[in-house]
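A common beginner's mistake is to predict each chain separately and then try to dock the pieces by hand. The better habit, illustrated here, is to supply every component at once so that their relative placement is modeled jointly.
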Amino acid sequence: MPPLPDPTLTAILDRMPVARLALRELDDEPAALPIVFARAAGALWSPIDGKRKRGGATLGRLARLERAPRVMLVLDHYHPDWSTLWWLRLRCIAQVVVGEHAQWAAAVAALVDKYPQYQTTPLFRDEPIMVRLEWTSVTWWAAAPDGLTRWLAAQPARGDD
Amino acid sequence: MPPLPDPTLTAILDRMPVARLALRELDDEPAALPIVFARAAGALWSPIDGKRKRGGATLGRLARLERAPRVMLVLDHYHPDWSTLWWLRLRCIAQVVVGEHAQWAAAVAALVDKYPQYQTTPLFRDEPIMVRLEWTSVTWWAAAPDGLTRWLAAQPARGDD
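With all components supplied together, the output reads:
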């Protein structure tokens, strides 16, 4: 596939509400989990938010990321019409950050803008903790050459419009 | 979370059309990709099918699985109503199999039954190759205690009904 134009990539990152984060378990086995995320200051940010969690699982995730920060974020579109399928895979460096990070306010604003759910779900659970994902390479696939732009064109308008 | 009843697990596996497979790259970094799959003979089966692929990528995937067969399959439900979210994670042993496998016919039948798309998309591309995933453990999470059964109840009826 040819390189993905940056505006297409950022538009997809801003519109896709969920992605799957592939990471290494403490025993080095591969794992993945769905996350919400928003783009700000050239990176992606995923909060440890107030959605109901299993006890201990979240802290375990942070320990895994600190031990093995090289991860992959997968965004993909599934639909019964297989001519519309696509995926994006971003190799990322993960960093666990807390409230004093220089881009913290921008990240919070991006998350609240992207997810109206944070009007009722707490953005943080106990402490303010986010995972910052800096992507280092992007690969993609689409069943149709214009699959990504067609998907973007079909997304509802965002935010204040 | 309490153990998931087997009928709930198998019903979800039979209804969910897509999952993300987390695996290890040749350099041991974690990766994931979306796959289609069907359940037959106590395992899950995912074909190297005729959806348009990148050159070489498929063979690369098989080499990775043969080298590092311990993988994780993630099924999850995303919806703007976050009270409906859930995920299932299956630790699996992956095996690359070809047409002479004893359960081959059952696996093909399950895939064709689950995906009407295979009436027009070739089930195999070049050679008949499938990835067989045998799950060894299951963990799950749901935002609401009855999230999985509510999702199942909302799925359209399948196949011949």
